[in-house]
Design goal:
The complex is a heterodimer of chains A (154) and B (134). Chain A has 154 residues and is an alpha+beta fold. Chain A has four helices and six strands, in the order αβββααβαββ. In chain A, strands 1-5-6-3-2-4 form a six-stranded antiparallel beta sheet, with helices on both faces. Chain B is globular and about 35 Å long. The model of chain B has no long low-confidence stretch (mean pLDDT 91). The chains are: A alpha+beta (154), B alpha/beta (134).
């Protein structure tokens, strides 16, 4: 399976999870848009496929998806730890559905993570080592999906 | 219906909060909602608190959901408490292992309130049947 086909599947599952869990819609984004106070989450998997998925989510989108997941009121204060946890949970659901889709749901995968960070350097490193990325826009703010294939299983 | 005391076991605080909210939306009569962030912590809660129903994730640090269910089955005080697994892992290997361990229902994340309601209804009906048989 080619990397772009895997990225298609990853994007499809991310959009489905985001819509079902957080009532948000992700659209393909043509050019790079700078994320503001981005939250990065990375989840490693090993099994029939070995690699990692990561998402870099603009801070405003991260807070919006957290509020929607929790059914919180608009403008309600959200602790940074809660926002980080919510982004990690969205990635966890996305990754599990992605792996089921691309491998036929028969075999179990081992997972490590999600590792969540608000460090811009961490986001840059995740994107730099990725086999491929997809740039999306959620409410006109940037979200990047990254897929890395290969690496050593723990 | 008598309100159920439930234990929600998930390492994500978001997932625990979402499930608690979904139970309300689904119209499941809930009394106390206890929480634990891994299987071992959940077993500790079950030793001291009366719980009618457990909702558990699969992947958790310290002790995962499957190990927790297996340990519950070995404990005469805990083996009768129904467990609904709430996970985004759809692999047949793991799903089969959970059914073999005796869980009552499996709901895939992100979970719809309707799916949750149906799982709880099936679980309670099954528990009532076992109770009548005994």
């Amino acid at each position: 399976v080619r990397t772009d086909q895997l990225l298609d599947a990853l994007q499809e599952q991310f959009c489905a999870v985001l819509e079902q869990a957080a009532f948000l819609c992700a659209e393909p984004q043509a050019g790079p848009v700078a994320a503001d106070r981005a939250v990065t989450a990375r989840l490693e998997f090993h099994g029939e496929l070995v690699g990692a998925v990561a998402i870099v989510v603009d801070g405003a989108v991260a807070r919006e998806l957290t509020a929607n997941l929790l059914g919180a009121d608009d403008g309600a204060p959200l602790a940074e730890a809660l926002v980080a946890d919510a982004v990690g949970e969205v990635l966890n659901m996305t990754c599990n559905h992605f792996l089921s889709t691309v491998t036929g749901a028969e075999r179990a995968f081992g997972l490590r993570g999600p590792f969540v960070s608000s460090d811009a350097g961490e986001a840059a490193r995740d994107l730099a080592r990725a086999s491929g990325t997809r740039r999306l826009a959620v409410q006109e703010r940037p979200v990047v999906l990254a897929l890395t294939l290969g690496g050593a299983a723990p | 219906l008598t309100p159920l005391n439930v234990l929600v076991v998930d390492d994500s605080m978001t997932a625990r909060a979402v499930l608690k909210k979904a139970l309300g939306v689904a119209g499941v009569p809930v009394g106390r909602v206890l929480q634990a962030d891994n299987g071992q912590a959940a077993l500790g809660v079950l030793e001291t608190e009366p719980v009618d129903l457990v909702f558990a994730d699969l992947h958790m640090p310290v002790m995962d959901g499957l190990e927790m269910v297996l340990q519950m089955q070995c404990d005469p005080d805990l083996c009768g408490i129904p467990v609904v697994v709430v996970t985004s892992d759809g692999s047949a290997d793991r799903i089969d292992a959970f059914w073999a361990a005796g869980v009552s229902a499996i709901v895939r994340k992100p979970c719809e309130p309707a799916a949750l309601r149906e799982a709880v209804a099936r679980t309670l009906a099954s528990a009532a049947e076992v109770s009548r048989a005994n």
